[in-house]
């Protein structure tokens, strides 16, 4: 009974984090929620007795991809503040 409850809570958490990541207007928050989604997915793979997939999901899905997306968001924010104006001036 407790195992079913844990599985149900994991499924609800996965759906809610996926929806939050998709519907978030703030890019940083969306990436952080995406990382949380990857970690929850890793827990789901452990529950399905697939530890190799859980490690890959945690390392690649939450770790590496999350860091790359956070770096992209920081470059995007810096580009919007002053990089786009200089690019427009160079084109003219």
Automatic annotation (TrEMBL):
The chain crosses the membrane at residues 30-48, 55-76. Pfam families: MbhD. It is found in: Cell membrane. The keyword Transmembrane applies. GO terms for cellular component: plasma membrane. Residues 13-78 form the MrpA C-terminal/MbhD domain. It is a multi-pass membrane protein. Keywords: Cell membrane, Membrane, Transmembrane, Transmembrane helix. Signal peptide: none annotated. This is Uncharacterized MnhB-related membrane protein.
């Amino acid at each position: 009974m407790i195992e079913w409850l844990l599985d149900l809570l994991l499924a609800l958490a996965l759906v809610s984090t996926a929806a939050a990541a998709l519907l978030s207007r703030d890019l940083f928050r969306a990436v952080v929620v995406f990382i949380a989604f990857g970690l929850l997915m890793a827990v789901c793979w452990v529950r399905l007795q697939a530890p190799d997939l859980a490690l890959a999901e945690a390392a690649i899905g939450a770790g590496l991809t999350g860091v790359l997306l956070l770096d992209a968001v920081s470059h995007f924010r810096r580009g919007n503040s002053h990089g786009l104006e200089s690019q427009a001036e160079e084109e003219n």
